[in-house]
Amino acid sequence: MAVFGRALMKKEFMLDSSKTFLNQGSYGNAPRRVIECRTGYIRMMEESPDDYFRWKNEDFWLSMVQTVAEFIGSDPQNVVFVQNTTTGINAVIRSLNFEKGDGILINSWTYGNVKNICAYAADTRHVDLYYVDIPFPLKSVDQILTAYEEKLSKHQNIKLAIVDYISSMPPALMPVKEMIALCRKYDTLVLIDGAHTPGQLPLHLDQLGADFYAGNLHKWAFAPRGSAVLWIRPEFHHTIFPVVTSYYDKEVVYKNFFYQGTGDNSTYYSTAEALKFYQEIGGYDKISEYCSKLALDAANLLVKKWKTSLYPMPDNMLPPFMRLIRMPDHKWFPTFKTSADDRKNFCRDNMSLMKTVWERFQIQSVFISIHGQSWCRISASVYNEIEDYEKLADAILTLLDEEK
Amino acid sequence: MSFGAEIRKDFVLDSKTIFVNHASCGALPLDVYNHRLGLVQKMESSPDVWFRLKSESMWKESIDTVAEFLGSKPSNLVFVKSTTVGINAVLRSLKLGRGDSILISSWSYFAVKDTCHELERQQGIEILYVDIPYPLKSKEQLLELYETMLQKHNSICLVLLDVITSVPPVLLPVKQLIAICRKYGKLVLVDGAHVPGHVEANLEDLGADFFTGNLYKWAYAPRDCAVLWIHEKFHGAIMPPVTGYSFYGEGEMWKNYLYQGHGDFTPFYSVGRAIDFYRGIGGREGILDYCSSLVTKAADLLVTRLRTFHYPLPDDMQTPLMRQVALPKLKKYPPVIVPPGEVKRKIHNMMTLMEDILNRFGIMCACVSVDNRAWIRLCASVYNEISDYEKLADAIATLVEEDEEIEV
Fold it and tell me: How many whole angstroms separate alpha carbon A248 and alpha carbon B111?
């Protein structure tokens, strides 16, 4: 079993080991052996493309779906690969038959891309868009559930609710089971945005009770970028089509998603290698044990050193491997005045701070403005160790000193 | 420049197989392949920097390069993964519905037909076809067919035109067709899948509203690299099939296409290297000089050896780099008989025959069934030589011999 931390980074990952990476949550990072596996497929594809596309492609797909379906607790027939969660969510929304006056329900923490997808649907298909504004600070899970019940009972025209499993910003573990139950009560379809969940939480999608789920394998499950799943409840198998039609089969759902011209599916075909790595380094139990503890310790360290606090939310909503920490007050780098009312610009990257911290200290992390305040989102992955976060803490303190 | 066997080793293509089907999947030069892998390495060593700090400038730089290559203003051009994606982007963005029609043809690519029928199902758009006769006698005959359809059907909103069709491989009089469409006030979407690197492109002068074409076929880019050209007046309207960054009217058009969730866009950023390779081996002139005469010789060779005939086309409608030659009638590999008037599923791949030729003779060629007959669709690329086609002729001759033994 591999040792976690920087030793693992050097041994297995392609990340520049002289630098510090605290953002597995955004883009994911695949180990070298997985990237090499993917390169092998690209090579095969280029050595004999016709052979690959006409005779090998489909077998690879079916075999990979089998492997991944097991990992996410699903019957293989319910699963197709898509490029990323954004694409999967687009597929569902574009396929569902919305009539004028039908509603879609999201909330202020919904991922930016998803807000845009819904806004586009609202604009082009005369769908009504409803928001739950999640209060700041959030005192308890019940506040969310009450707000949802209120919206769903008041607006019976809501046809679809998009619910994060783990939201991106702020990073939070949502009360997904209770939210699904509420949606069921009001006859509302549920699409789970599970972008962050494969690898961070154990998944049992066939039992979850949702209608649709999309999640990335290239974040916490170590697959190459461009590798995600769309899970579709059986009664919707003939309803949901990919955003790009290449092959049109009314009967077999996977064929439409699988056959996307002579496109490169090599990212999907490397997922078995990624899951093999995941199991080899300890599987969910060991990875979760290490990363959860590291996220907790890192957050405590930063809060202590910066004399700030965590994003105010109930403890039972803290996601296993991510934390959002208040930045110490700083003048030099701009924070953007945004609020829950400003739905489109709910949160904004603080690009200049990210750039400075990278260029001066070789640390990659996420700095962001929400509620007119400045925050830092850290990820704890298998190649991180507590020293990484000490470096981050010190880097910011150094910048603050210089500010004076 | 030494083409044929000499340049073959500069491609990733498996050395054990003879490839005469460049048109379907393209072929990747080792130089471009390695360059692309180098970009992947950079991306993996520092992903935040790559995606947050470098992506936009790489995109813009690559767009500038390919815009110049295709005679396009950079501001009108975006990357998409393939022509099929480009076509989906346009058709799905135009708010067509019941009462509206789209005009395609019996020669339209199968994915285009499938996309149209999907939209027919979803949005109630009517799909109309120009049914191209066999044999097509002249350009004028084709132009007349289009004129008749457009006169007859006021409901047509958009015409989807090929520059070069895939099966049969035909060079269409696209400028004249566009002129007819304009006369009737119709929108024009040009399927230029085969254009980049094959025929001269000057997108600003084409006169279309939209154009989409692949860089990974004849322009040597890695797979998942194509472009969509959008006339300025539609910049706010045409959204990619995946909404990520924004919705229309907001921000710059190109950002909608760059920000579609996370993935590997290194094929886009390798396009400069591909175009360098293309120009380095002689550019369009040098390549066509070798390949055009080769494909002509190859087609003649097969017609002579197999005692069949060329797909009947007016001379001025032959493509530079592709030909179609009739196969002898084989009991073991019958063509698909399509009832007259059936336009949707007119063209079929002959998969079993292709598989047998590959596995038994080590030759990868496209065998198709169209107009109730089996054909070989030939391509000539820089790594081909006349001996490739001699071997193909031998292979088919063997199959013919064996077929004669088969009792009906």
Answer: 8
Chain B residue numbers touching A19 (CB-CB < 8 A): 46
DSSP class per residue in A300-327? HHHHHHHT--B-S--GGG--TTEEEEEP
Task: Give the integer Cα–Cα distance in Å for A166 and A169.
Answer: 9
CA distance A292 to B155: 61
Decide if A116 and B41 are in contact by the 8 Å CB cutoff: no
The strand pairing partners of B80, in sequence order, are: B226
Query: What DSSP designation does B102 have?
Result: E
Q: Please state, as a whole number, how many other Cβ atoms lie within 10 Å of the Cβ of residue A395.
A: 19
pLDDT at A351: 87
> What pTM did the predictor assign?
0.92
Q: Is the dihedral of CA B14, B18, B24, B27 positive or negative?
A: positive
Closest residue on chain A to B18 (Cα): A48
- Paired with A105 in beta bridges are A130, A161
Q: Does B263 touch chain A (CB under 8 A)?
A: yes
Judge whether B333 and B355 are in contact, CB under 8 Å.
no
Closest CA to B260 of A243, A276, A197: A243
Answer yes or no: are the C-beta atoms of B78 and B254 closer than 8 Å: yes
Q: Is the separation of the CB atoms in B190 and B59 below 8 Å?
A: no
Average pLDDT over residues A172-195: 97
Share of chain B above pLDDT 90, in %: 86
SS3 A5: coil
Tell me, what's the ipTM? 0.89
3-class DSSP assignment, residue B164: strand
**How many angstroms from the chain centroid is the CA of residue A217?**
9
Q: Which amino acid is at A282?
A: G
Residue B150 to residue B159: CA distance in whole angstroms: 9
- Residues of chain A in contact with residue B52, where contact means CB-CB under 8 angstroms, are 349, 351, 354
**Could B111 and A261 be called an inter-chain contact, meaning their C-beta atoms sit closer than 8 Å?**
yes
- Are B246 and B252 in contact by the 8 Å Cβ rule? The answer is no
Residues B322, B326: Cα–Cα separation, whole Å = 14
Contact, A385 vs A293, CB < 8 A?
Answer: no
Neighbours of B122 (CB within 10 A): 15
Nearest-by-CA chain B residue for A216 = B262
Task: Calculate the CA dihedral of residues B217, B219, B223, B226 and round it to 10 degrees.
Answer: -90
For the ranges A99-103, B216-220, B272-276, B341-345, which has the lowest average pLDDT? B341-345
Burial class (CB in 10 A: 0-12, 13-18, 19+), A143: middle
| Best CA proximity match to A95, nearest among B123, B85, B93, B86 | B123
Could you read off the pLDDT of B223-232 as tens digits, one per residue?
999 999 999 9
From residue B248, give the alpha-carbon distance in Å to each of A162, B55, B237, B244: 22, 21, 6, 11
Name the residue of chain A whose CA is nearest to B241's CA: A243
Residue with tokens 């520059």: B163
Positive or negative torsion for Cα A324, A329, A335, A341: positive
Using CA of residue A133, residue A139, residue A141, residue A143, what is the dihedral sign?
negative
